[in-house]
Amino acid sequence: MAETLYNATAELVKDGGDARVIRVLPDQPKGRHLAGQYGSLGMPSEVHPGRLIKRPYSLSCSMINLETRQLIDAQETPYYEFYFNRVTPRPAGPESLTPKLFRLRSGDRIFCGRKITGYYTLQDVPAGRHLLFISTLTGESANNALIAQALREGRWGRISHLLVGTNGWRSLYEAEHDALMRAMPTYRCRTLRVETYAAVEARLAEGLRDAARAEDELGFALDPARSHVFLCGDPALIGAPAKQGAWRYVTPTHGAIPILTAGGFSLRTRFKLGTIEYETYW
Predict the structure, then answer these.
(1) Where are the domains of the chain?
(2) Going by CATH, does the domain composed of 130-280 fall within 1.10.540.10?
(3) What is the pLDDT of residues 194-245, one digit of tens each?
(4) Nearest-angstrom CA–CA distance, 56 and 48
(5) Which residues, 6+ apart, have CB-to-CB distance to 34 below 8 Å?
(6) Domain 2-112 of CATH type 2.40.30.10
(7) Which partner for 160 in 139, 140, 218, 223 could form a disulfide, CB atoms 3.0-4.6 Å apart?
């Protein structure tokens, strides 16, 4: 019965213990999608036989082939790539999917949703803008896909990526980021290992106040007329407005968005363009 729920084959690419990168090869040819969007994975429920547990995951991208040093076009690969953290299932909570994904081995079967969607894309970002990406942990999934597209197309300016994690954390894509910086002089990637997000907020605020410091660290000034910001990962760092009703939102006083909007950046929504894009996890 479970076999009839599967429509793809998984390949384990990287395993860091607390994080994994897998590639999922669907039985049918992939559909077209935009970098930065998300799909869904599923595994059979152990509580309700014959049913799937599904969860959305952003599509990731390895960005550069470490052997050939060629940029990767995710549209041209036969697989989807996913990057996720280990989570501890709650005894009284709903059945979790991610722990099941940590039991996967290369060659195992899995469900992969056909629908790919999402608004976190480069589609409406004007050409020539400098791009700042800020990621927390596996929030770099969507950002990696966007960076691969931006470098491949060459329509934007300089690109800077800040990877944010706790002390001791390392991205499973570290080798790819290093190779990308050597191959592409317009790309810069830096890892910030912090105890609290307040350190990142302070650094961002300083960069807005001091153009010379921003140019030194990022490669360009944080000017809303010339740059665009992408935030992906932990809502505590992003600081996005929280919906409280049909048309009412509460704006946090913490996080990157309040700092950026105070510096002249504007939040993009489904209904209006802006200079900040965000995608929150969990």
Answers:
(1) 2-112, 130-280
(2) no
(3) 999 999 999 999 999 999 999 999 999 999 999 999 999 999 999 988 877 6
(4) 20
(5) 116, 118, 121, 122, 123
(6) yes
(7) 218
